[in-house]
Amino acid sequence: MGLLRATLGAKWMRQRYVLVVMGMLGMINAFTMRACLNVAITQMTAPPSQPGGENKTSDDSCPFDPPAAGSDSSGSAVQKEYPFNWDSEQQGLILGAFYIGYIFTHIPGGQIADRYGGKHTLGLGILATAICTFLTPAACKLGDVAGAVIVRILMGLGEGVTFPAIFVLLAKWAPERERSLMGTIVLAGPQVGTLVGNALSGFFLDWFVWETTFYVYGGLGLAWWFFWCFLCYSDPNQHPFIGDKELKYLNDNVTGLKEQDNEKEHVKTPWKSILTSMPVLALITTEVGHDWGFYTMVTDLPKYMSDVQHFKISSNGTMSALPFICMWISSMVLSATGDWITSKRVISNTLLRKIFTTIGSVGPGAFLLWASYAGCNKYFVVALFCIGMTTMGAFYPGMRVNALDLSPRHAGTIGALMNGTGALAGVAAPYAIGLIAPNGLMSEWQTVFIINFAIMGITNVAFIIWGSGERQWWDDPHGKPPGHVEDPEDDIKAVKGPAMASTAM
């Protein structure tokens, strides 16, 4: 125990950074497990037949890659056996089923994490997701569409607690001046998870049987859970290995620690104030728009690359991963920039959040729409996707960490509200795309990206008008709403009450 404390409690080992790295790896694991089906499904079921003939090219569809092993001389894919026969609507239902479960555990997850801490809430959520990932091949074989839908719903139920738990952990571990960067490192895990899931899934599917993807990612999730249990804690004051200097620094600079109640009683959630707060409602609205665009890319970009651009599976995973690499890099750079701006007080925190959020809304909508009209110039299309997702990285120092600004005390609950409501887009977007683009035609996908542009742009307006980067009055149990006028009688009663009680004794 002494050796372990000496190692993990060394001056150079900052426990808040251990938590950030492990939190990021946890989110990476969660999203690789979530995203692997998005690529695997292209090899689990036959691609849609083009009107006028099976898998033929036309002005509304791009040519196949040059012939290679597994292709005939015409350049069309050789007929192969697929284990399932799911049409586009069924695929959309399966891909969206995850978010049905995902929605329902956000609020309970936020409440549990707020009350009992984020460590085990996050750990058990990812453990459940890993188990469901292992079971996915068996569920698909035994239950076909119904089996796939059920296991994806259960997987969503497990993963639904992860974001609220992360917000609660950050509220206890992230000092104000490090909040944007620490929050972005952890919350950028989904981009890294998606790019890893897409890239490695393409490799596994090219070289191994399709089931391998699920077993590998499920195993990595179990390994992460084991290390998480021993390395991370919900609260710095509970951590057995933290150094005295870091503990003092965190207690002096983290709002969620400075204002912890001396008594053990749980502070009631001010539901009415939260649900009628315009900054919170604006944040939730913008989250829906962001998630519509993000989940469109996460869930259906591999299908677009396969059905429209006709990338081979060996390159589909890599091409689908590149935009998320760009998004991850930009989120890191912009978050460091945001922290610098915050420390220098160049502009207000509210204006900072609005600028980054607007870049993250308008940029992706415009560039993804342009990509859909770029024709069959495959690598130009990929470049436009990369630029669009680079601008989406601005969301992270924008509205993604905004719950920590508004309410450090109730960050888990607000994070649950925003991410849970945003997950409705995760249900709707894949299913809508399955209905809009049943044939995998370019014109159908252009409609998909027009809708995406409109939703992201319109929801951003709410944040421009009502968004805020300041702590809200109701986050303080003793706070008063703006314009509140103190009643002198209240002060007299407060003084008289104890005096009269002592006299009576």
What does this structure look like?
The protein is 72% helix and 0% strand. The chain has a single domain, classed as Up-down Bundle (Growth Hormone, Chain: A), CATH 1.20.1250.20. It is built from 21 helices and no strands. With 505 residues, it is an all-alpha fold. The longest helix is centred in the first third of the chain and has 42 residues, at 118-159. Keywords: Membrane, Symport, Transmembrane, Transmembrane helix, Transport. Residues 47-76 are annotated as: Disordered. This is Inorganic phosphate cotransporter isoform X4. It comes from Thrips palmi (Melon thrips).
Question: Could you name the key traits of this structure?
Answer:
21 helices, 72% helix, 505 residues, mainly alpha, Growth Hormone, Chain: A
Topology:
Blueprint: H1 2-8, H2 15-44, H3 88-104, H4 106-116, H5 118-159, H6 162-173, H7 179-187, H8 189-207, H9 211-231, H10 244-253, H11 255-258, H12 271-275, H13 278-307, H14 313-344, H15 349-372, H16 378-392, H17 396-400, H18 402-406, H19 411-436, H20 442-466, H21 488-504
